[in-house]
Write a structure and sequence with these properties.
By secondary structure, this protein is of the alpha/beta class. Helix content is about 35%, strand content about 15%. The protein has helices spanning about 20-25, 30-45, 105-120, 135-145, 160-170, 185-190, 195-205, and strands spanning about 1-5, 10-20, 125, 155, 175-180, 190-195.
Amino acid sequence: MKADVYGINGKTTGRSVDLPDAIFGVEPNEHAVYLAVKSIQANQRQGTHKAKERGEIKGSTKKIKKQKGTGTARAGSIKNPLFRGGGRMFGPRPRTYSVGVNKKVKVLARRSALSVRAAAGNLKVIEDFTFEAPKTKEFANVISNLEVANNKTLFVVADNDKNVVLSARNIPKASVMSVSNFSTLDILKASRVFITENSVKQLKDNLSK
């Protein structure tokens, strides 16, 4: 499909680029998207939760009362989980929540997410741009010119330009990511996606396999 190239002033440049249907025009695979997002969110969990069990509680191991004749249940230690201040039974332990997903599924998920945004008209191609120094105001002007100041926006660039990334860092609804770093979840979180001209070729190389 053909896509017009927009300038950072918000107007068309008169140029157009070919967006391959194999990436931006596929039938969305919802299950692949689900697996990719599930994997991303699971891998972000730290899994450092821990509760002390009876063997880790500080206290005496002396038998607190005789075995029989008390009229109550037998108890062997003050660290018994049934007592206040005792260890916890079956408490959480450190673990990993990571979920693996095949590379082809990840690629299919990103294709599906990009195709959904393109079909809805929420994906546009913009010219390559950079800043001489990190300036939040300059990036805010770009967003304003593109009329997406009130939308969650993702800018996909060929290489992480440090000045552009730092300029967007303080804008809560905008993010800048390179072709090799953005994920399916990043696309779904953004209601508007902008792809630079140079990143289109890199997307073909990364997602056409």
